[in-house]
Amino acid sequence: MTSTPSSYDFTDSDSPMDIRASTVLPAIRTDIELRTSDGLTLVGEFAEPVDRPPLATLVTMHPLPTAGGFMDSHVFRKASFRLPALADIAVLRFNTRGTSSPRGRSEGEFDGGAAEQADIEAAVAWAAERHPENIWLVGWSFGTELCLKYGASEPIASAIQGAILLSPPLHRAGNEDLDAWAASGLTLKVLVPEHDDYLQPAAATTRFSRVPQAEVIGVDGAKHLWVGEKYAARVLDEIADTVLPGSSDSLPTTWTGEAATAS
Question: What is the reported pTM?
Answer without folding.
Answer: 0.95
